[in-house]
């Protein structure tokens, strides 16, 4: 009879089954059996019927109380997220004449964790001591977990240290695991690793593997992927065989490092296949992300296409990867396949989809998906979706619609959204929107000097030079610097880095250097920021000197550092040193070349006249050359009069930047300098045939507090006649002095001729 009832309980799947089983227990007088009653309570709890279980328990606990049944009821309540009720059951143990045992306390402490009821936890700790169970493995583990979960790691460590023979008894491995997990949970993987290295027991134990994995995951979650990988390698040296969870953790670390550890990621991929885990969806998803972050989108696609089963995470990961790499059309094609496969997208999927629309500029499709996610898929818009949509509209020039969406969304706009609007106002020259965006950004990110610089560019593009100069006035930066000192934040490295960037962007390189030299601690970002600042201001030699100091300080440079270093070499014209650093970054520092590094190197070679070498580097690099690279070659061909290279560069630039009149003008100048006037005229004709309009030439000068601007073709300046007369006099004096203008610098593509002089009004 007991076996039959046990069989019935194992196969219950709904409330009717539970009621039938209970009726059978009552009819056969088995409802007082502690084991069967406990099994019944477990069945109810696992199905979510904790209230029914409690009603049956309440009837039986008064007449036939047993601690085993009470423990089962407490455990069942915690499983059903009824922590408060679980503690009430725990409290009632004493009222029926029972005493909590070594299982009662852990179950009750789990309820304390769920409620974050620290005071109750300390009371239960005291009760465990009174019961003489303060050294019991299960109780100690539960206490450590409780204190760790409530961010009381020092109390957890005290419990651990006070356990007899905790440092040598291999039977207490569960206690060590709890303590290590506590440190990991609270963001201290270093102490966790120290404990792990002293943990007793056989290194091949499953418990030990779980602990190694938790430490790897802890480092990865703390954005310390190098340490995570080091622990993974050490684990194998200790003959601990990683399982799929461990590989998932280390793949997460590889994904953070991107191209730096692509080889390790490929090795783990091979290991996954060797162990027969290659059809595990979670690992496949992690591999897609790892390959994507390392820049190997083809491998990411290969993994995805060879999956026999795909979840929504699989589809979302590859769509995000394609969108991130600028392959918006492919990303949207994959999303269409996802819909056809009847896999319901989630909120993260639509962030990727809307980002893809922004990359391709598909405004109507973006609007459709933005509305479809709510009304077709029932997914509520989050602030990230609004951010993607605002970015899409802003890039496409729908500024009024983007601003309207900001005002209508049920969230407080964050810095990312106002940053998108500021960037859009820069693209489309809307100074008023730029002012509005900056007003909010100053409140959200007062330390971000880049926002002021961008607004300054917007004003400059709109010809509002007084506003441009005021937008990034150095006094504002000095006020912020003073505020930082006043609040005692002047030794915070992140703020010091921001001050260096702020002073550099405002043109005050001496103040930037002063901040840098007075730093008591410098990170790689500190060194990189000042090197970039010096290179940007044309102080290439000083920039390279600072980099030498960085090497002597044994601070490892990153990929951004080498962009600054190669730019500095270009400013000074140090070709051999540039070649050395370009190779050293990969073979000495293990940093993979990105397209920006190739761009700097090509610019350096081009400026120095090594045009063949520059072109060879373009053909050898593992990236599709972008407009910046072809622009560097076009500029180099202009400097050195290489019309053929100029033609080649323009052929690519016309495809990449068909709207940029400067490319046609520069090629026209190259032909003119070489005396090939027919080709020069042809370049200008090609520009007109494609409907590209040339922006008129302009310059400006500030006299006292007024800024005067001069634009080709405009004669509206109030002192036009006087200026024209002065220039005529200067021209006559030049002739008398037998000075001939250098024709190479004439604006050959000007429609009004080099002899014509035009002006505009001041403001």
UniProtKB/TrEMBL annotation:
The chain crosses the membrane at residues 312-328, 348-370, 524-540, 560-582. GO terms for biological process: RNA modification. GO terms for molecular function: RNA binding. Pfam families: E_motif (PF20431), PPR (PF01535), PPR_2 (PF13041), PPR_long (PF17177). The keyword Membrane applies. InterPro entries: E_motif, PPR_At4g14850-like_plant, PPR_rpt, PROP1-like_PPR_dom, TPR-like_helical_dom_sf. PPR repeats lie at residues 172-202, 208-242, 311-345, 523-557. Residues 138-259 form the PROP1-like PPR domain. Keywords: Membrane, Repeat, Transmembrane, Transmembrane helix. It comes from the Eukaryota. PANTHER family: (WILD MALAYSIAN BANANA) HYPOTHETICAL PROTEIN (PTHR47926:SF432), PENTATRICOPEPTIDE REPEAT-CONTAINING PROTEIN (PTHR47926). This is PROP1-like PPR domain-containing protein. It comes from Gossypium barbadense (Sea Island cotton).
């Amino acid at each position: 009879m007991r076996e039959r009832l046990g069989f019935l309980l194992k196969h219950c799947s709904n409330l009717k089954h539970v009621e039938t089983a209970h009726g059978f227990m009552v009819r056969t007088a088995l409802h007082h059996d502690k084991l069967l009653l406990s099994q019944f309570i477990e069945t109810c709890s696992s199905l979510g019927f904790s209230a029914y279980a409690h009603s049956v328990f309440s009837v039986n606990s008064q007449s036939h109380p047993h601690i085993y049944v009470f423990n089962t009821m407490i455990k069942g309540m915690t499983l059903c997220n009824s922590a408060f009720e679980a503690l009430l059951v725990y409290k009632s143990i004493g009222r029926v004449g029972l005493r909590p045992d070594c299982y009662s306390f852990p179950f009750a402490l789990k309820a304390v964790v769920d409620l974050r009821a620290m005071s109750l936890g300390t009371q239960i700790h005291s009760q465990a001591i009174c019961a003489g169970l303060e050294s019991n493995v299960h109780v100690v583990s539960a206490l450590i977990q409780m204190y760790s979960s409530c961010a009381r790691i020092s109390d957890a460590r005290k419990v651990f240290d006070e356990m007899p023979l905790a440092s040598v008894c291999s039977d207490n491995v569960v206690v060590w695991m709890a303590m290590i997990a506590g440190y990991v949970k609270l963001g201290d993987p270093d102490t966790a690793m120290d404990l792990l290295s002293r943990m007793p027991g056989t290194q091949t134990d499953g418990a030990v593997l779980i602990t190694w994995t938790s430490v790897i995951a802890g480092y990865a979650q703390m954005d310390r992927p190098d340490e995570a990988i080091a622990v993974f390698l050490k684990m194998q040296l200790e003959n601990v065989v990683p399982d799929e969870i461990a590989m998932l953790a280390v793949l997460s670390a590889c994904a953070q490092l991107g191209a730096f550890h692509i080889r390790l990621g490929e090795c783990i991929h091979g290991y996954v296949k060797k162990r027969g885990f290659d059809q595990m969806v979670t690992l496949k998803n992690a591999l897609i992300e790892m390959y994507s972050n390392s820049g190997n989108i083809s491998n990411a696609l290969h993994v995805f296409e060879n999956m026999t089963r795909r979840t929504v995470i699989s589809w979302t990961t590859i769509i995000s990867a394609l969108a991130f790499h600028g392959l918006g059309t492919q990303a949207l094609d994959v999303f269409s396949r996802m819909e056809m496969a009847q896999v319901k997208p989630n909120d993260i999927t639509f962030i990727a989809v809307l980002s893809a629309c922004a990359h391709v500029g598909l405004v109507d499709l973006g609007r459709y998906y933005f509305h479809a996610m709510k009304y077709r898929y029932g997914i509520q818009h989050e602030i990230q979706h609004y951010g993607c949509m605002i970015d899409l509209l802003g890039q496409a020039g729908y500024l009024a619609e983007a601003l309207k969406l900001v005002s209508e969304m049920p969230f407080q706009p964050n810095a990312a959204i106002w940053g998108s609007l500021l960037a859009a106002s820069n693209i489309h020259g809307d100074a008023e929107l730029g002012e509005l965006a900056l007003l909010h950004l100053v409140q959200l990110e007062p330390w971000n000097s880049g926002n002021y610089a961008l607004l300054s560019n917007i004003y400059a593009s709109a010809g509002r030079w007084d506003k441009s100069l005021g937008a990034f006035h150095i006094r504002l930066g000095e006020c912020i610097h003073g505020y930082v000192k006043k609040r005692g934040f002047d030794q915070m490295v992140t703020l010091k880095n921001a001050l260096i960037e702020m002073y550099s962007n405002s043109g005050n390189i001496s103040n930037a250097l002063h901040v840098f030299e007075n730093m008591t601690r410098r990170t790689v970002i500190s060194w990189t920021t000042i090197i970039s600042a010096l290179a940007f201001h044309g102080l290439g030699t000083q920039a390279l000197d600072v980099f030498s100091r960085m090497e002597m300080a044994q601070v490892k440079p990153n990929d951004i550092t080498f962009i600054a270093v190669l730019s500095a070499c270009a400013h000074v014209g140090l070709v051999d040193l540039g070649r050395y650093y370009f190779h050293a970054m990969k073979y000495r520092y293990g940093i993979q070349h990105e397209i920006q590094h190739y761009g700097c190197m090509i610019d350096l070679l081009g400026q120095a006249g090594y045009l063949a070498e520059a072109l060879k580097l373009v053909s050898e690099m593992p990236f599709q050359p972008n407009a910046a690279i072809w622009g560097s070659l076009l500029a180099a061909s202009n400097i050195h009069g290489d019309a053929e290279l100029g033609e080649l560069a323009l052929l690519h630039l016309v495809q990449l930047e068909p709207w940029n009149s400067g490319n046609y003008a520069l090629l026209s100048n190259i032909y003119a300098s070489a005396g090939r006037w027919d080709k020069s005229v042809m370049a200008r004709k090609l520009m007109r045939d494609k409907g590209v309009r040339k922006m008129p030439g302009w310059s400006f000068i500030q006299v006292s507090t007024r800024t005067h601007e001069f634009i080709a073709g405009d004669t509206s300046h109030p002192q036009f006649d006087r200026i024209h007369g002065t220039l005529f006099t200067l021209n006559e004096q030049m002739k008398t002095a037998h000075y001939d203008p250098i024709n190479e610098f004439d604006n050959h593509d000007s429609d009004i001729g080099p002899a014509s002089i035009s002006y505009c009004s001041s403001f």
